[in-house]
Amino acid sequence: MGLFNFKFKYTRAQLEIFRFSFCLLAPVAVMYYIGTDTDKKLNVPGFWPDPATLNQIPKEPYEIKAELARMKKERLEKRLRLEKKIQEEFGLDLEEEKEKIRRDLALKKG
């Protein structure tokens, strides 16, 4: 006769205890597995951008003034570039158009 030659039957109580312990311990085991060494398991290289490439918010007053000056300069350069493009492509004189709009607004007010 072999060593494991006996027949073993589960009773209903043993089955319920097994089901209860499985339902209780399976989520705990999954959470434990996920929770340990997450840097190795769930790491996606290059997901977060390099902090050096992000916009740096100015915090000091002189930095804020310098940033505002840079933004105004960019806006003025863009406006001048667009005005030049309009004059070249459509042949419109922007000063005349501005005067027409001012006159129209003055007539509507008065």
TrEMBL record:
Transmembrane regions: 17-35
Keywords, sorted A to Z: Membrane, Mitochondrion, Transit peptide, Transmembrane, Transmembrane helix
Domain of life: Eukaryota
Bilayer topology annotation: Single-pass membrane protein
Localization terms from the record: Membrane; Mitochondrion membrane
Keyword Transmembrane helix assigned: yes
Entry's Gene Ontology BP terms: mitochondrial respiratory chain complex IV assembly
A cellular component annotation (GO) from this entry: mitochondrial inner membrane
Pfam families with a match to the protein in the record: Pet100
InterPro entries found in the cross-reference section: Pet100
GO MF annotations in UniProt: unfolded protein binding
Keyword Phosphoprotein on entry: no
Major localization listed first in the record, in broad terms: membrane
Similarity section: Belongs to the PET100 family.
Name of this protein: Pet100p
Lineage of the organism: Eukaryota, Fungi, Dikarya, Ascomycota, Saccharomycotina
